[in-house]
Structures
1.
Amino acid sequence: MYIIILSEFSYQTASGSDENAIDISEADLFQIGKSKKFDVENKTVVDYDVNYEQKQEINLRISSLKGKLSSTDYIVLKYIEGQLSETDYINYKNIRQSYRDEINVLELELSKL
């Protein structure tokens, strides 16, 4: 079957005499958007991770949470050194724990994708 690639996930049928057309198997064509996509620049079919964007979002959120943990490390040190009371520290401790809990949930979700 001959097609002309329009975008990563779209095409139009073509004749074999069209210079922009590529020959593609029906099996590969059936997998477009599932496990394969078009490489528009190289006019080929390549593997595609359908969860790529979701994984990227999760990884960005994990990075953000780890950054928040790092940015509050000094508060832990102040508490350890006695410069912060337990009453003042408890709020930060709970917030930091919520960050770690969310990271754990996101990492588990990521491992299932």
2.
Amino acid sequence: MSAIADVAKLLEQIPIWKRLKGMPAEIEGLQARVAALEALVKTRPAAETCPLCNSGSLKVTSVKPHPIFGDVGGLQERTMKCDNSGIVPEPVENGAAGAVG
């Protein structure tokens, strides 16, 4: 037997080698799942709906500390814009659990 065949035979006896051989197929499967999930996320409407057109396409355009409380308690002020109607509703407070938002 050649040296390469001997090395290949020895590698087949190592448990981690068997797992490493299966990695490319596993990685391809995971890449396909991620691509499918990313496509699904793109089709979902935003969590916030536009008060004018109700399209559900409000997107956050900026986030800054709360104007009164600053960084205390994790409160933030989000500015949003509708991709459909183009309106910019009043900033929304968002932050720590239980906060008014």
3.
Amino acid sequence: MKQRYGELVQLQTELAAAERSRLETQSEVARLAARAQRAEELADEVAQLRTAYTAVEQKHQTMLTVYKTTYSKKYQKMLKSSLLP
């Protein structure tokens, strides 16, 4: 009878340890799932930011081209007018 009781206590201890392990694993899975979801959200945000950056960069290049063209024409006119008597 004592042996059976000892076995029962041992099994209860193992069961409690298994339950703790299950809860820890469940918690870890939930934590990792939340991190994975956040990583997906960040990946989407990065993609949107890259698209926005490309659009801004294109506008900037267009503005530079317009500025260079305008400035160059004005500068050439100034040079011509100052060089002529």
